[in-house]
Amino acid sequence: MGLFSGKRPSDLGVRNGKLKPPPATPNCVSSQAQGGYHAIAPLQYHGTRESALAALLGIVRATPRTRIVEQTPDYLYAEYVSALMGYVDDVEFWFAPEGGIVHVRSASRVGHSDMGVNRQRIEDIRARLAAAGA
Question: Quick check: pTM over 0.85?
Fold first, then answer.
């Protein structure tokens, strides 16, 4: 990875039904944030968790400079690397037990502001997931 890749966090994942809370800096969005800059709606899907996960995996894998770090039946963690400077964003998806909802967290590893990149990424994934009929 590049000069600006930072160190992979060791505290990601789902703990007690929650993804890691966002930092104080404006470089993260989370569907579990309680308002403010960080808040973003969770993804929604129709059909089975398995078909929605397959669609989501297809979207993530089709994105350039993206690597899947961890995958389970209800969780997906990927690293997205920027083209120019090699910044790395950690992106998590958690399929909530109640079904139909995927909680998301997208966060820059380094820097103060992400200039809206994480929010735009999740909104793009949301649109692509809807277009896939998931």
Answer: yes
